[in-house]
């Protein structure tokens, strides 16, 4: 009688380990793409206002509008953040947890400047809240000093392209 003995040379175990490692890498990559990427790779739009052209990060949902520029250490002179709301209103901007002073500009549905705050300072308290007296659909935050240096004025018109269907 001949006895056959199976010899395990480690190839099957190595294949299993490679398969598990590959699966973990795919899961981590998917988590990064679906969870972290929106916070790292923020959508932007070119925005013209006054005599400036700005690369503006877009905030179109409640989470990104609430976070805004909180935690940002520096804005270059050609950077901004554009808040897009689903309906016009007296949308309030709160400077809590901000690290830098900013200029804030509210735009109506026609993208005309209706209200501005220059050099709004960071705060850790309940103060530092700003809102326009008339309804706005958009708010733009710039580095402090931009309103003056780029000749942004009341009734000035902003130009940018945005997909309003993505606004929540």
Tally of separate domains: 2
User: In CATH terms, what is the architecture of the largest domain?
Assistant: Sandwich
Biggest sheet character:
6 strands, mixed
Determine the fraction of residues in helical runs and give it as a percent range: 10-25%
Q: Spatial order of the strands in the main sheet?
A: 1-2-3-8-5-6
Mean pLDDT, as a whole number?
A: 85
The chain-level structural class is alpha+beta
Summarize this structure as a short list of keywords or feature phrases.
24% helix, two-stranded antiparallel ribbon, 8 strands, 2 domains, 168 residues, 6-stranded mixed β-sheet, alpha+beta, Jelly Rolls
Task: Give a concise summary.
This protein is α+β, with helices and mostly antiparallel strands. It contains three helices and eight strands.
Structure description:
The chain is an alpha+beta fold and 168 residues long. It contains three helices and eight strands; from the N terminus they run αββαββββββα. It has helices at 11-40, 62-67, 146-149, and strands spanning 44-49, 52-59, 79-89, 93-94, 102-107, 113-120, 129-130, 136-143. The longest helix has 30 residues, at 11-40. The radius of gyration is 25 Å and the shape is elongated. The termini are far apart.
């Amino acid at each position: 009688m001949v006895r056959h003995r199976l010899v395990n040379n480690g190839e099957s175990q190595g294949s299993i380990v490679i398969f598990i490692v590959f699966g973990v890498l795919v899961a981590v990559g998917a988590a990064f793409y679906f969870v972290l990427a929106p916070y790292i790779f923020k959508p932007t739009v070119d925005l013209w206002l006054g005599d400036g052209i700005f690369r503006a990060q877009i905030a179109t949902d409640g989470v990104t509008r609430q976070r805004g520029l909180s935690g940002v250490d520096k804005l270059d002179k050609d950077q901004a953040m554009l808040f897009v709301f689903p309906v016009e209103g007296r949308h309030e901007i709160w400077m809590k947890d901000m690290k830098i002073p900013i200029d804030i500009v509210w735009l109506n549905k026609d993208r005309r400047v209706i209200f501005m705050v220059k050099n709004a300072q960071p705060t850790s308290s309940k103060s530092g809240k700003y809102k326009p007296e008339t309804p706005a659909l958009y708010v733009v935050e710039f580095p402090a000093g931009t309103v003056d240096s780029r000749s942004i004025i009341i009734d000035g018109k902003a130009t940018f392209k945005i997909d309003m269907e993505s606004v929540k």
